[in-house]
Amino acid sequence: MTSVTTAASALLGVYARVGPTFVAGEGVELIAEDGARYLDFTAGIAVNALGYGHPVIRDAVTRALDSGLVHVSNLYHTEPGEQLAAELVSRSFADQVFFCNSGAEANEGAFKFARKWSGKTGIVAFSGSFHGRLFASLAATDRPDYRRPFAPLVPGIQIIPNGDRAAADRAISAAETAAVIIEPVQGEGGVQPLAAEWLAYLRTLCDERGAALIFDEVQCGLGRTGSLFAYEQTGVTPDILTLAKPLAGGLPMGAVLLTDTIADALGPGDHATTFGGGPLVASVALEVVRTIAEPGFLAGVQTSGTRLEAGLRAIAARSRKISEVRGRGLMWGVACTEAVAPLVGAARERRLLILSAGPTVLRILPPLVITGDEIDRGLAILAEVLV
Question: Which domain holds residue 289?
Answer without folding.
Answer: 56-293
